[in-house]
Predict the structure.
Amino acid sequence: MVTIVWDVDDVLNDLQLRWLELAWAPAHPGCGLAYSDLVENPPDRLLGVSRDEYLASLDAFRHTPGYAEQAPKPEVLSWFERHGAAARHVALSAVPLHAAHISAEWVLRHYGRWMRTFSFLPSPRADDPAAGGPRDKACWLTEHAAAGLLIDDSENNVREARAEGLQAEMFPRPWNADAARPVEDLLAQVASFCDTPEAYAGRSQEGDL
C-alpha cells in the first residue's frame, strides 16, 4: 500500500481564506485584498505589514473558534471518502509548537477515519525558536522513509522534496505557480498514484517549478 503525505493548512482546509475573512479583514477594513490577491505566501508584503505582525495575527487565529470550526476542503474530503482506503495517509504540518495540538485535533476529528499519523515541524517564532529535528519536510520524509507522495501548497517544499528524489505534487493556491490547475485534476492524479504507483513514478518530476 502506498503512502501519501498531506500538508494540513491550505491543503486539507482553507486556512488563509478563513483567516483573511474572519480575522484580518474585520480588523483592517481598509485592506482591500481579496483571497485571490494573495499571490505570495507569506503575504506580509502584500498586506503592507511586517512578517512578525502577519504571523502574530495568523497564530492568534489558530487559537480561536474560527480555526477549530473550519470545515475540511470539500473536494479533498470527498476524495478521501472515495479513495482513502487505498493508501496510508500521514499529515505533516509546519505549525508553531503552541498550536500543534489544535491542528492535530482538527485533522483527527475530520480525517481520523483515514489519517492515523500526525507529524509536525515546529515553525520558529521570535519567542519560541524551533527545536532540533528535521529542518524541512524533505528531510522529514527522507528520515522517516516515507517513500510515497507529498501533497503541499508550498513551492519550496515541493521543490526540495523533488530534489531529494521524492514524488511531490503542488496543491493549487493563489500563491503558487499551479494556481490555475483545478483541484479535481490534482486529486485525480493522486488517485492514479494509489492505483498504479509504478506507472506514476517520475511524473511529478516533469517540468520546473
